[in-house]
Design goal:
By secondary structure, this protein is mostly helical. It contains eight helices and eight strands. Among the domains are: 35 residues, no CATH class; 128 residues, no CATH class.
Length: 274
């Protein structure tokens, strides 16, 4: 056995080069110092003792390379070697470090997220879609008037009103008289109010549907049965505009608060069927 003059590992006589550090073994070995020759501390430059983990001068911890260490003799064995070249002991290969968890990068602020989360803890953006959710907590503190947004009322109100007019015409034609308008409000406002984002917008929508349908009450009677029937209807029943407004407001509020989830599920199933 010969000892490498560079790293100090004992190597069989048949080796021409040290399998640990690649040093040529053909050179005269001479006396072997306690230090490992060319290996020095990266911090203070002091020679490194054989198999040392810390520098004897400054205490710096040496970074271990990817090689394995023989359990039999303690010699370092290059990666990929199955048996220690010094003593022949089978080497347990060092397992590569586990890959770090998948890292997500927020599209909005660039924050690095190591956990499997959906929303960025820095800015709140959905890291998968890039969309920022509406802050629901602030809406709870808003007043009724502050919640009103006419841009979100126009479309559902128009659709609900058209549905109410058609239902009223059908009801009047079937001879249901004033009951036709009540049924029209219950069905149209009750359904479409559940698709509006909050109760304030739903109430405003129900108010307008009840108001306009009340104004069209006599014209619808005249359209279906003529002017004489419209005059007779006005004389017997009178206008129901106030009642229809109140009914529209109540039905829209109840629908948006208590039936919203069920109505949205029905609408979603209907759209998926189409």
């Amino acid at each position: 056995m010969v000892k490498c003059s560079r790293c100090g590992v004992e190597v069989a006589d048949s080796f021409d080069m040290c399998p640990n550090c690649g040093n040529s073994l053909a050179e005269p070995q001479g006396a072997v110092n306690e230090t490992s020759g060319d290996l020095t501390c990266s911090n203070c430059g002091a020679p490194i003792m054989d198999n040392a983990d810390f520098c004897s001068e400054c205490g710096t911890k040496f970074e271990q390379n990817a090689s394995n260490r023989c359990e039999g003799c303690g010699s370092e064995v290059p990666e990929g070697v199955l048996f220690c070249p010094t003593c022949g002991t089978k080497v347990k290969q060092v397992q590569p470090p586990k890959a770090a968890e998948q890292v997500h990068i927020c599209r909005n602020c660039g924050f690095q997220i190591e956990e499997e989360v959906t929303f960025c803890p820095e800015c709140g953006v959905n890291i998968l879609t890039g969309e920022k959710p509406e802050i629901q907590s602030s809406n709870k503190n808003q007043g009724f008037v502050d919640k009103i947004n006419f841009n979100k009322i126009i479309k559902p109100t128009i659709v609900a009103l058209v549905a109410a007019i058609l239902l009223s015409i059908i009801g009047v034609w079937l001879g249901l008289s004033w009951v036709s308008f009540i049924i029209a409000i219950l069905i149209s406002v009750g359904f479409f109010a559940g698709l509006i984002d909050n109760e304030a917008n739903a109430v405003v929508s129900g108010f307008f549907v009840g108001l306009i349908l009340g104004l069209l009450e006599n014209p619808i009677i005249e359209l279906v049965w003529g002017s004489f029937a419209a005059g007779l209807y006005e004389w017997v029943y009178g206008g129901q505009i106030i009642f229809l407004i109140i009914l529209g407001v109540i039905i829209s509020y109840v629908s948006n608060i208590y039936l919203k989830k069920n109505i949205q599920e029905i609408a979603g199933n209907f759209l998926s069927w189409l």
